[in-house]
């Protein structure tokens, strides 16, 4: 059974209280995603590419009619020091946060976390000048 049909088969909010033990194929990378290894009862994204589908409005409700692909765009650390992935829907732009699963690709998570450092909003050649303007010495040595 695919993820779209799960929404039709079960009542609203079913997945808030019941484990999701269905294997599915990732629409982005094509890998088979199994529930084992996630570290929880609710697998909601591919452990390889970290992509998901826009199926929920609230976690587990399967109330979204969008069904677009949710791209991983950022990571953040929750109060309990647990990492979470921020997803943005390609179709409608909605954003959501999903906890990291035990078997998620660590290199993909780190590449997402480091992206702002690799692509700063200012030219790196001007960092000494900007430091001087802020009252600093302006030297990187």
TrEMBL record:
Residues 23-110 form the RNHCP domain. It comes from the Bacteria. This is RNHCP domain-containing protein.
């Amino acid at each position: 059974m695919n993820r779209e049909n799960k929404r039709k088969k079960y009542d609203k909010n079913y997945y808030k209280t019941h484990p999701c033990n269905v294997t599915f194929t990732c629409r982005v990378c094509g890998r088979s995603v199994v529930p084992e290894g996630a570290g929880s009862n609710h697998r909601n994204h591919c452990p390889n590419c970290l992509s998901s589908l826009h199926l929920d409005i609230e976690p587990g409700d399967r109330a979204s009619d969008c069904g677009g692909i949710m791209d991983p765009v950022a990571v953040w650390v929750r109060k309990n020091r647990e990492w979470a992935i921020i997803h943005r829907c390609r179709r409608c732009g909605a954003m959501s946060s999903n906890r990291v699963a035990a078997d998620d690709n660590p290199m993909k998570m780190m590449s997402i976390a480091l992206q702002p450092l690799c692509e700063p909003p200012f030219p790196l050649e001007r960092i000494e000048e900007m430091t001087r303007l802020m009252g600093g010495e302006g030297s990187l040595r």
